[in-house]
Amino acid sequence: MPGASDLANNVADSVPAQTGPEGTKRDFLFIATGAALAVGTAALAWPFVASMAPDAETVAAGAPLEVDLTPIQEGQIITVFWRGKLIFVRNRTDKEVKDSEAVQLSDLIDPAPDSARVKEGHAKWLVVYGNCTHLGCVPIGHSGQYDGWSCPCHGSVFDSAGRVRRGPAPTNLPIPPYAFTSDTKIRIGDEGAGKAVA
Amino acid sequence: MSGHANTYVPKSRLAKWFESRLPLVGLMHSSFVSFPVPRNLNYFWTFGAILIMMLGLQIVTGVWLAMHYDPSADKAFNSVEHIMRDVNYGWLLRYAHANGASMFFVAVYIHIFRNLYYGSYKAPREVLYILGVIIYLLMMATAFLGYTLPWGQMSYWGATVITNILAAIPVVGDTIQSLLWGGYSVGSPTLNRFFSLHYLLPFMIAGVVVLHVWALHVVGQNNPTGIPIKSGKDAVAFTPYATVKDVFAAVVFMLFFAYWIFYQPGYLGHADNYIPANPAVTPAHIVPEWYFLPFYAILRAVPDKLGGVILMFGAVLILAFAPWLDTSRVRSSNYRPIYRQFFWLFVIVCVVLGWLGAKPPEGGYVIASQICTFYYFAHFLIVMPLVGLFETPTALPGSILESVTGPGKQIESGSGMPVGAAAAPSSKG
């Protein structure tokens, strides 16, 4: 009793192959069908993947956040959340600023001068994301040998400019987009509007 | 399989009608009743059945827990407490599920080390073995996803650390991380999708388990001698011999399991997970569940983010290459005097790595982790290839029967098994 595949083979065998240097009509159909299948699969997969990206509500929750700096004492670190991400705002002491400015760039894992870590004319104020660049733990403030932060999870150490001084963290604590709206107020998420910051 | 007495013959008209349309009963019969099992299997060979039992228990307790659990960041923590306090027998379902995960890993680690000791990964069982490695990977993913669901501090920070590990993947890492988070950090969307995936993966495991058992029944079981079944007298029928032994071992394992549920239900967890998730504070000592500790130690042994991540994943993936890294023609370490010592050293190194994974990442602990990590990889990349080339194995018994009864003796009754293709597959790998 012939099975379905046998029948299919018989049908296929009965069609004379039209071979030529440019290929057969069946080659063309095969490639065209395959291409349509690939495009169709990708088009179908796209909504599934895209639905996993941050949704409109989550994105909208990232409206700029105003932070009043006046209650922050010298040496104090406060934490705020913007887009669900933890941010440290630190009022650095003069000694911390001086020590940080004096560091040789060659001593740094991810070289950046202190001036690149703060806004011009506001060297006291450091604003950085509060998750370690290694695996995302929250480093503990005023600890570690550089008066900055040290991470309890895997031992990374940051200085008072949020620069990584000892691994395994590969990079400095990133700086969120922000701007001074007055001498005592900053708006986080305002600088470079429209630029997505993960 | 050959042998008429061992083939399923439908008796009733209904059974004949059904069998001629879907030979399901016959498949079950040849797989779990008449299947020839080496007669010298020890209790380490019962863990496959124990693992199937654990998978079933985890699915059943999990489905029931999902009837009461709420996977939103606001309510998850409280819904778990609701299960513990308000739901009838909720405490039992949750403790059975949470400790069940640990018991599942206890059983899988015994299963894996049994495999490595007796060389079960070697030809012709490579595909069977790699399917097992895939199941192990899926188990790890499922366990991680499940651990985030109570949304305590360890849940939250475990999820943060592991998703940050994926961000270390070059080029696509950040995109993968964002798609997993569904936001800019671990949050409610993350919890929702982790719950969805946690519910999905066990059924994928069940699917791979079917392939694993299928592959097992094509190539046949290994045994403590490592030599194949040569005649029917080397084997006994799966039912009743293996069935009864598996059930007995499963009952003993259940006693062990019950001890944890009823006497130490929180011992394997962390007190920090009874503090609701707080994105502003990381627990002072963040450690994964015990079954991930050796890999966590490997991650932390490397003072480089990407390097640590590569080694951690490599530590699991290297298992899949064992069939080709081991050059010895003898399977069982019982007959490999030199390799056997390295095997136990490997076991000790794994246990020490687990211990180091729970210690803070500083000073001597890091150095010890680095030494152990080196040996972990050296075992696969140096010891397995070289020892196989230079070692002189001790004499193998002539047959499985001979290893049981002693050389030259005959078994009294003719209670042998007809064995067919299942016991003598091609050994070219």
UniProtKB/TrEMBL annotation, chain A:
- EC number assigned by the record: 7.1.1.8
Q: Which cofactor does it need?
A: [2Fe-2S] cluster
Q: How does it sit in the membrane?
A: Single-pass membrane protein
Transmembrane intervals: 28-49
Does the UniProt entry include the keyword Signal?
no
Q: Which reaction does it catalyse?
A: a quinol + 2 Fe(III)-[cytochrome c](out) = a quinone + 2 Fe(II)-[cytochrome c](out) + 2 H(+)(out)
| The protein's enzyme class | translocase
Name the principal localization, coarsely classed: membrane
Q: What UniProt keywords are attached to this protein's entry? A: 2Fe-2S, Cell membrane, Disulfide bond, Electron transport, Iron, Iron-sulfur, Membrane, Metal-binding, Translocase, Transmembrane, Transmembrane helix, Transport
Entry's cofactor comment = Binds 1 [2Fe-2S] cluster per subunit.
Report the subcellular localization.
Cell membrane
Record-annotated Rieske domain positions: 100-187
One matching Pfam family is UCR_Fe-S_N
CDD domains according to UniProt: Rieske_cytochrome_bc1
* Known role: Component of the ubiquinol-cytochrome c reductase complex (complex III or cytochrome b-c1 complex), which is a respiratory chain that generates an electrochemical potential coupled to ATP synthesis.
Extra info from the record?
A: The Rieske protein is a high potential 2Fe-2S protein.
Q: How does it assemble?
A: The main subunits of complex b-c1 are: cytochrome b, cytochrome c1 and the Rieske protein.
Q: What is this protein called?
A: Ubiquinol-cytochrome c reductase iron-sulfur subunit
Provenance organism:
Methylobacterium iners
Gene symbol here is petA
TrEMBL record, chain B:
* Keywords attached to this entry: Electron transport, Heme, Iron, Membrane, Metal-binding, Respiratory chain, Transmembrane, Transmembrane helix, Transport
Positions of region (Disordered): 407-429
InterPro entries documented for this protein? Cyt_b/b6_C, Cyt_b/b6_C_sf, Cyt_b/b6_N, Cytb/b6-like_sf, Cytochrome_b, Cytochrome_b_C_euk/bac, Cytochrome_b_N_euk/bac, Di-haem_cyt_TM
Transmembrane stretches, start-end: 43-67, 92-112, 127-149, 156-179, 199-220, 241-262, 306-325, 337-358, 364-390
> What superkingdom heads the lineage?
Bacteria
Pfam families listed in its UniProt record: Cytochrom_B_C, Cytochrome_B
In terms of Gene3D superfamilies, this protein maps to: Cytochrome Bc1 Complex, Chain C
Q: How does it sit in the membrane?
A: Multi-pass membrane protein
Outline what the protein does: Component of the ubiquinol-cytochrome c reductase complex (complex III or cytochrome b-c1 complex), which is a respiratory chain that generates an electrochemical potential coupled to ATP synthesis.
Assembly state and interactors?
Answer: The main subunits of complex b-c1 are: cytochrome b, cytochrome c1 and the Rieske protein.
Q: Would you tell me the protein name for this molecule?
A: Cytochrome b
